Amino acid sequence: MTVYGAAMAAGYDRGRALRAEDVGRWMLAARPYLPGSGGRILDLGAGTGRFSDALAHCSGATVVACEPSSAMRAASRSNGTAALVVGGTAEAAPFGDAVFDAVWASQVVHHVTGLSAFAATVRRVLRPGGHLLVRGGFGPVEALPLYRWFPDAWAADRAVRLPLARIGAALAAAGLAPAAHVRVSQVFAATAGELVERVRARSLSNLAALPDEAFRAGLSVLRRDAAAGRIEEPVIDALDLVVYALAPLTARR
User: What are the pLDDT tens digits along the chain (253 aa)?
Assistant: First the structure.
């Protein structure tokens, strides 16, 4: 699993922060698959804790934020999250068996280096009847807001692309079945100027992986388009919430 360093952690919230109303849309979509008070949710690959407190607030459950990067964990704690923040990867989360009612994995799966290990870990830590909620973009890369200026960032030889069918197959082999798939729209940037500032933070792993020269070239074109009024505002991004369910014990007998 990709581990974010200090430089990425420093600019992550500046480039990736979500508006409260957009977080609310995600929680509205997720709520039917989350436990209530007394339950436990694992925020897997929690980053700086963008969703940790929101998951707790919308459900009443206890949230544990698991993140491999020490720099990202430090940022999460600095942000004042109420979640318990621990180190660990998506392929080998340091928890016992059947301790969580739901696993939230936001923009994590494309960083996973061992898909079977990830599926086995989720299967192991979930309680029977629990849900895995995968948040990410599984549509065509050409539809992504930044593809217009940085197509090389999503080139086949640079970006890790995990088709949803492949993810589903690995999860099915571990005993998780698809339960729901919804699209949620969010504001990536309210204005062209905000878009430029978000891109400058270079907090998307795809942009961080670009050679500096390629990144600067794309940013230069983006700035020209913003100055010329060629960017439709607001800039909207539509992502997927794909839910998988672990059958209850009675259903597996």
Answer: 555 655 565 556 566 788 999 999 999 999 999 999 999 999 999 988 999 999 999 999 999 999 999 999 999 998 899 999 999 999 999 999 999 999 999 999 988 888 999 999 999 999 999 999 999 988 888 999 999 999 999 886 554 567 899 999 999 999 999 999 999 999 999 999 999 999 999 988 889 889 999 999 999 999 999 999 999 999 999 999 999 999 886 655 4
pTM, rounded to two decimals: 0.91
Q: Which amino acid is at 244?
A: Y
Q: Is 137 exposed, middle or buried (0-12, 13-18, 19+ CB in 10 A)?
A: middle
DSSP per residue over 69-88, as a string? -HHHHHHHHHTT--SEEE--
Domains of the chain: 6-145+159-188+236-247 (3.40.50.150)
Bridge-based pairing state of the strands 176-189 and 235-246: antiparallel
